[in-house]
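Q: Got a minute? One more chain.
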Amino acid sequence: MYIIVGGGGDVGYYLTKSLLSQGHEVLLLEKGAIRYQALSEELGQSVVRGDACEARTMEEVGVSRADVVIAVTGEDDDNLVICQMAKKRFKVARTIARLNNPKNELLFQKLGIDITVSPTRSILSLIEAELPGSSFVTLMRLRRAGLGIIEVRVPPDSPIVGKTLNAIKLPRSGNIALIIRDNEYIVPTAETKIFANDEVYALVNREGEEALRDALGATR
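A: Always. Here it is, folded:
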């Protein structure tokens, strides 16, 4: 199966590694020069520097013969463009898009995206699950894909209390997807402030858990 992945962040990187290990032909597109260089040192010819939003780039990497196109950039607009172009212009049979904002899910479905994946919605499903066994199985599947879900309660004496997320030096290896405050679910943005006793849920890779806990001033 030939799979094109748009977006060379942590999600795209670990997804590409996992798919390659399963024997698929995978091509990862990353437009940033520095990030591309880091990825190419490990992934070799499986990564190409280019913008997956551009039709010419997609044509050059053979999108017309792709079985699946997966868009996992940090911008929902870009993910929508990538998948729509693959579906409508190049007739790719299957498109999958990462949703950074779960509010966009209905729009993506209406515009013909086959599958949407929302880290925030996944975490909410885990929280709301009535059977602990179900949560355990889902977490283990994420671990095997190189990702995990952690919950961190921000202590009152944390140095980040009162600061917005864009003012905090968070590690790239951790993606805060949900904050629970006084039983309210908050989908964070760059301007969201962190308060004492916030319950923070994040997707992290294997190396990122301790770095994220340190950044939030929390311990196990």
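A: The radius of gyration is 18 Å.
Q: Perfect, thanks.
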